[in-house]
Amino acid sequence: MHKITVIALNTFKEAVRNKVLYFLLIFALIIMGFSGVISDLSIAAPEKLIKDLGLASIDFFGFLIAVFVGIYLVYNEIDKRTIYTIVSKPIDRCQFILGKYFGLLFTIYVNIAIMSLFFFAVLYFRESTQPDMVNKALYHEITPGKWEAAGNPAIQYYLFHAKQFGLSAGKAFITIFGYTEPLTQGLMRVILMSALGLAVITSFAIFYSTFSTPTLSAVFTFLTFIIGSLCEDILRYTDKLAEKAGGVNMLTGADSLKYWFAWAAMHITPNLGLFDKRMDAIYGSEFVNPLDRYVTVDWVVVVYGLLYVGGVLCLASMIFNRRNFK
Amino acid sequence: MIVIDTNKLTKVYTHDFIDVEHGRIRFNFFRRTVALDHLDLEVREGEIFGLLGPNGAGKSTTIKILMGILFPTSGSARIMERPLGDKTVKGQIGFLPENPAFCDYLKGHEFLNYYGELYGMTRDRRRRRIPELFGLVGLPDHAPNLPLKGYSKGMLQRIGLAQALLNDPKLVVLDEPQSGLDPLGRKEIRDIILALKEEGKTVFFSSHILSDAELICDRVAIINRGCLISIGELNKLLNTKIKDYEIVASGLSGAAIEALRPRAQKCIEREGDVLMIVPTETEVNEVMRIVVNEKARLVSLTPRRETLEEYFIREVSRHAPDEETAREGAANA
Predict the structure, then answer these.
(1) Are the CB atoms for B299 and B207 separated by under 8 Å?
(2) Which of A85, A90, A91 sits opposite B102 (nearest CB)?
(3) Interchain CB contact of B116 with A (< 8 Å)
(4) Contact B134, B56 (CB under 8 A)
(5) How far apart, in whole angstroms, are the C-alpha atoms of residue B215 and residue A59?
């Protein structure tokens, strides 16, 4: 376990010295920041737009980090031949793979934490700077119905916003550690489930990089992500094919091929839709994820995700154990 | 104790199905290359063993198999009487690969600390050992805080050697340890290898630099095209008889030089000196007589024995035609 931790920490060190990580993180933060601005364009429920865009950014940029940082981690060690001196040390090759995986996952989670902090800060800041609250800060009622500016309005305006910004950041910070209020109710659950989904997709990124080039690994990981996210549609498609033919056994020719190809793709790739709880948290129970009709309890999804991670990492270790490093 | 023992170790590379060479697609249907062919080696405890051979002979392949980087196609090997890959044994081995590359985002001390942790060394031991090693391998004072991407080739070779000695290993395996080093660096590496032997460690290394190998090796093995050509103690392998004599004289007249020329195998004039290689003692006496008669000055007289380089070239060229015949025979069969 100690050696896995050592490799994981070194992988984290390697990842945080990678410029791609910062580009992705900055881009995600810019999108979240802008979500506060463009929410004004929304006719109704602007905070829903902020939530949707923020949570989608956390998930998507977490995925991009898994792909663009993950696919190079194992490949670079082999390509640059740094693996020679590592495998000659008293460690197992599977310890190396696990170390790389947990190091990458730690990097992704640190980034998710930073993005979440920013996301909650934007939400709190937006809520605390509603026009009526700004007015309250800029003017005070001297007699019923008669208002007067509280000092220089421009200075008061900036001071108020600066104060709210600080307070929002503080509240966002404690939200990450479990504090919730109606505005952020259920959002941590969405982020945690999304983090679990990323753990699954990261295991695939590491798995592909044990036997292919970075470009191919990226393509494979994207395909896994797309198929995994479209599981519900693929399921509907296979159901429709079977229904049209009057049963699975009645399928012939191209339809049979399509059915079994779709069936295999759906069963090999993880059902990533299960980790997406955004609909539930943002729009309420009437807009729940359609996949929740199969799995309604979170811990079942957690076990499902962990089993996938375990299985994929076992396969990755088996392949890596047999590899010759020329 | 036999520290390294290989038994009919064989490695066959299977080529990729499709290769692109010089912009042209090349199909390699079942194309295979024998990198190592039934290699039997024994390295004894406490000796400096040199694995020598021309480019592509299979030296690095042998070392990579022993270090668990490659898997043999057939045959077996044992290190310290344990099978390859045994973690207890790995903890007692230090390894420096050829043209080493390391995690270049790490600073010198971070890198050694990381590898120290992989060896399972305690924090106290690492704290004591790492500064010691920077001094031992001759890295400059700023090296510990310099990222490895800023290291020169020679510095990388030195820090590579430092990581190989980090765990105070019983067996040190070095693949071309002197490549990329200047003459001073090569001498320092030689001295470190000799110091390791004095500490009772076994050193197994491959090298192209035969003059250095001759100076430090107890035993050598020469391999060519994956086959073992010869193995043994240097003083037994090399011919101890005097091969010829090298004479350097100065102040000889032109006529005297012309008189000496037919007697010498080689006669080279250089800034007033004449260097001659003569085959027998009789020729030496004759040269001496002329030098005395001419009242010239004898600068040096050196009897020459066979060098490792000469032995190596002789053995490699002696086996090359047989190898070709054998390969052709195998291909025809």
Answers:
(1) no
(2) A85
(3) no
(4) no
(5) 63
- pLDDT computed for residue B307 by the predictor: 77
Give me the residue from A2, A84, A91 closest to B97, CB to CB.
A84
pLDDT at res. A234: 82
Give the DSSP letter string of A150-210: -S-HHHHHHHHHHHHHHHHHHHHHHHHTT---GGGTTHHHHHHHHHHHHHHHHHHHHHHHT
Question: How far A212 CA sits from the closest chain B CA (Å)?
Answer: 13
Torsion of CA B152, B155, B159, B162, to 10 degrees: 170
Instruction: Please state the pTM of the whole predicted model.
Output: 0.81
Q: Cα A245 to chain center, whole Å?
A: 39
ipTM confidence: 0.78
For residue B93, list chain A residues with Cβ-Cβ distance below 8 A.
88
A73: nearest CA partner in chain B: B103
Closest CA to B109 of B71, B139, B81: B139
> What are the chain A neighbours of B103 within 8 Å (beta carbons)?
10, 14, 82
pLDDT of residue B322: 54
Residue A124 binned pLDDT confidence (cut-offs 50, 70, 90): confident
**Is the pLDDT at A187 greater than 90, yes or no?**
no
State whether B101 and A82 contact (CB < 8 Å).
Answer: yes
* B52: helix, strand or coil: strand
Distance CA B89, CA B131 (A): 25
pLDDT digits (tens, 9 = 90+) for A193-206: 889 999 999 999 99
β-partners of residue B221 are B51, B231
Interface test with B, best of A81, A84, A87 (most B CBs within 10 A): A84
Query: For residue A297, is pLDDT > 80?
Result: no
Indicate the residue of A2, A80, A90 with minimum beta-carbon distance to B101.
A80
Q: Which residue of A has its CA nearest to B86?
A: A90
On whether the CB atoms of residues B217 and B270 are closer than 8 A, the answer is: no
**Which residues in chain B have their CB less than 8 angstroms from residue A73's CB?**
none
DSSP B106: S
Residues recorded for chain B: 333
Q: Is residue B321 very low, low, confident or very high in pLDDT (cuts 50, 70, 90)?
A: low
pLDDT above 80 for A31: yes
pLDDT in tens, B19-64: 666 667 777 677 788 888 888 988 998 899 999 888 888 889 999 9
Phi, psi of B214 (to 5 degrees): -65, -35
Which of B71, B90, B102 shows the shortest C-beta gap to A90? B90
Question: Which comes out higher in pLDDT, residue A190 or B17?
Answer: A190
Segment A152-172 shows an average pLDDT of 82
Give the ranges where chain A is alpha helix by DSSP (H): 2-16, 19-38, 46-79, 83-87, 93-128, 131-138, 153-176, 187-209, 214-229, 231-245, 253-268, 278-283, 298-321
Average per-residue pLDDT for chain A? 82
Separation between Cα atoms, residue B291 and residue B298, nearest integer Å: 7
Contacts of B118 in chain A (CB under 8 A): 3, 6-7, 86, 89-91
Instruction: Report chain A residues whose CB lies below 8 A from the CB of B72.
Output: none
| Cβ pair B95:A17 closer than 8 A | no
- Rounded mean pLDDT of A168-186? 77
Q: Which of B60, B3, B13 is nearest to B34 (CA)?
A: B13
Tell me the backbone φ, ψ of residue A325, rounded to 5 degrees. -100, 100
